[in-house]
């Protein structure tokens, strides 16, 4: 990943986590919508891969060394972005499903029992929102990467 994207990802994750924690926003209210949106994001990644396979852009990406990561081709960079995006999407789906089936309070209480002064439900909810926000960020990163290569 590009350094600026690593920084953006970290800042987004931490900011959303802190914001949703202190505003006490409940993820269960949007968990169903989250599952739909993240499923759509996974479909976009699959379409992105399919579109690249049948495109003349693939050969260009395979043969050009990336300007910011000199030991990788542009295809290797986009492949890494898609892999990370899919991983984040799967984590988000798992967290959203846990939120929907209402077992999170028992799991969280076992994991976070030493943090009695914090609300474990809200920590879990904020974690879900933070991962959910990264899905949008990675869609933007991947589209920017592909569009910038099409224009070049």
Walk me through this protein's architecture.
The chain is mainly alpha-helical and 152 residues long. The longest helix has 32 residues, at 120-151. It contains 6 helices and no strands. The two termini are 20 Å apart. It has one domain (30-151).
State which percent range the strand residues make up.
under 5%
Amino-to-carboxy terminus distance: 20 Å
SSE order, one letter for each helix or strand: HHHHHH
Tell me the radius of gyration: 18 Å
Report helical residue fraction.
Answer: over 70%
SSE class: mainly alpha
**Overall pLDDT, averaged?**
85
Number of strands: 0
What is the count of structural domains? 1
| Unreliably modeled segments | none
Main β-sheet: number of strands, strand sense, barrel status? Answer: none
The DSSP helix count reads 6
Oligomeric form: single chain
Net shape: elongated
Keywords: Membrane, Transmembrane, Transmembrane helix
Transmembrane segments: 7-25, 37-59, 80-103, 123-147
